[in-house]
Amino acid sequence: MGQLNDEIHQERLEWTRRRLEALAKMEVKLREMRELARYAAGRSLSVTEAAQVQEWMDILQKEVIAIDRETFTIDG
User: Fold this and answer.
1) How far apart are CA 42 and CA 38, in angstroms?
2) Is the residue at 76 inside a domain?
3) Handedness of CA 4, 5, 6, 12 (dihedral sign)
4) What top-level branch of life does the organism fall under (predicted)?
C-alpha cells in the first residue's frame, strides 16, 4: 500500500511539474495576444493589417488551447 501511494504521489508531482511548465508557456502566448491587442487598439489599421492581427490572434489562441489540453488532466 505504501509503494502504491508513493507511485501515486510521484505521478501527481510529475503532472504538477508538467502543468506548471505548460502554464508558463500559455502565459507567454497570452502576453503576446495582449500586446497584439494593444497594438491594434492604438492604431488605425487597414483591413489587411487587421486581418493579419486577427490571424496571429487565432494562431496564438489555438496554441494556448493545445498546450492546455496536453496537460489538463493527469492522464494527459
Assistant:
1) 6
2) no
3) positive
4) Bacteria
Number of domains comprising the chain: 1
- Burial (CB count within 10 angstroms: exposed 0-12, middle 13-18, buried 19+), residue 8: exposed
- Within-domain flag for 40: yes
**What global pTM score does this model have?**
0.85
> Which residue range forms the structural domain that includes residue 14?
2-71
Q: Which grid coordinates are listed for 69?
A: 489540453
Q: Tell me whether residue 76 is exposed, middle or buried, using C-beta atoms within 10 angstroms of its C-beta: 0 to 12, 13 to 18, 19 or more.
A: exposed
Is 42 within a domain?
Answer: yes
